[in-house]
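Lay summary. Proteins are chains of building blocks that fold into shapes, and those shapes determine what they do. In this project we predict the shape from the chain. Here is one chain we studied, written as its sequence of building blocks.
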Amino acid sequence: MTVTIEELPFDAEAVALANEQWGCNCGPAALAAVTGLTLDTVRPHLGQFEEKQYTNPTMMAKALRSLQATWSRLYECPAAERAVDPTYPHRGLVRIQWAGPWTEPGRPVAARYRHTHWIAVRHFRGRHDVFDVNAMEAGGWISWDNWRDSLVPWLLPQVEPKANGQWWPTHCWAVDRIDQAGRYVPPKLRARLEVANKVLAMFASDTRIESRQKGWAVTWTSEIGSRISKQWACRGNDFYPVWNHKWARGGTASIALSQLVRWLRRLPVLPLASWRHWASDKCGLVDPKAVELLRAGGYPEQVNCVLCHQPITGPLDWWHLNDVSGPCCGRAPECRQKGGGR
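And here is the predicted shape, written in a compact code that computers can read:
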């Protein structure tokens, strides 16, 4: 299969993990691909998906509205025997109907609903491409010809053994690419955000970091099941946000969260050794896999003192004064003089 170049905000490993954790399949993955969001970002907007394990058009429309996406309906014909002149979007979502005994004349229309499949489509550099969750090993986005001639004939015998090989679109919706709530997030930073949220899920499974127009925000589920979203802001320190009493996950968790947010903001952070401690049996805040995830994502193993700018090789302290914050060596008097004293 020919792979195109647009960088997805998730990879095959992320899809496999999301499938294992909450059942992510074609619908959520196509939604994330077309909007340019991570799987974890679209998850809270999927309504009853985790209970039902499918995404019908009503649920997909609600998810798009919940995400405040810009979208429009170009073609809808769910009861047709096959598509009549469908209008495909320049970029958007397409719901595919697999044909089989369930689509034969006289069968109830509802019988065919479970034999459908969501894909995303786009025109890219003069070609028509398809995102299919089953093509993640090939990069996710593949050419329309490869999808039609290679992937579909390979896929159908596995997922729909009674299918007759025919298919047609029932819904074609134009969907604009969006970012995390309106702010452009470069691909490298999106990858860093994906790592940060994977690590965050290890000690606060209902909590996510998201990019907003005014900066970074943290969202979590309240005791009554509603989603809470708060802008990241600290007062008088760097470890505890002003809404920490509402999040209430404990002091160590708050410090770890603060380091993930600072890493995303490209501010000085505690070294990777701190995460090793949090992953140790003594602390047990995160799984040891967190250390490798962060290392692979570019989290610093070695950090410099924010005052003398020399590598910190021994015990460290944390400095917060005169608009300077971050790890410091905590020993050299000249460092404190540069920082303005304590």
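What the prediction tells us: Confidence is low (pLDDT under 50) at residues 1-5.
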